[in-house]
């Protein structure tokens, strides 16, 4: 990583390393799914599904977050960017952990070392972000403080994940994995995505849709975050008592998310494809919570259906589609290129939506589940590889407009 342009800004390093880990994670899982389709199952000390969860929850999303927050965060706070040694050290250390976890699919002993690096690197990243907030005199730091709170919640999640990888055959391993997933998704990833969406989606919309009133009340954001934590708590409680589920809180959560999509002018956003990428991705959050609601209510009636469909509507639908939208926008803007998506990017974005539908279909067409899961994995790999072929080179190339950064 000695390329001067690659090291010129945090988003370049974070997005570059995040893209590589994402591609590696998708490639490994597609390989696992295709092998399973042919009747071959991998045997390992760590079940492949557990490693898949670790990579998908903790492998690449935090790298993109560190690239974004160390680039955009100081502008939110009107403070100087953190020292290069700090942001480069935290991103580099975290990326090293992700690389080891990706290799653990072939060399299992690397898993625990990778998780340990994640925990240390993330603690460092939390300190860096907290230091920038303390240095700020900005009048409104609410989004920044909330991001910090979500970042802090990643620490117990990463600790649970480390415990699971250290003792994969232990009696509590499954509980450690479940805790890492629930805390990691509902107290860390989902809050960060919601906080950034609450701040940025109305802002971006107001800059291109006229007339437009940027609606983003803080009571809405606080309600989302409390409901996300409630879901995590009830889901963990359901691990011990199957009669407990979060369907009633999920119903309120779904209603608030879908209402926000309406108030943020989802339909009008399609006038500008780059903006529509953010709006259409956000819609998946409401759909996912509606699926969780339906699944929970059905469980109370003694019907167990849908499997992991709601989870993947959230993680692939909301998280991954939002990631494509935001990272595409930041990559274009910070590389000195026009804020307009090419047709191929637009097609790849909608292919990712098709990946979500294929993954969900496998939970309902159970006789062909492995086929649907394989289709989703291979299509997801193709989408990320094709997107990366177009955008990843921007991170090591100088800005097109000749400006620094």
From TrEMBL:
| Keyword annotations | Membrane, Transmembrane, Transmembrane helix
Q: Does the keyword Transmembrane helix apply?
A: yes
Please identify the protein, giving its name as recorded: Uncharacterized protein involved in response to NO
For whether the record's keyword set contains Ribosomal protein, the answer is no
Which residue windows are transmembrane per the record?
12-31, 51-73, 85-110, 116-133, 145-167, 173-197, 218-240, 246-262, 274-293, 313-332, 344-365, 371-389
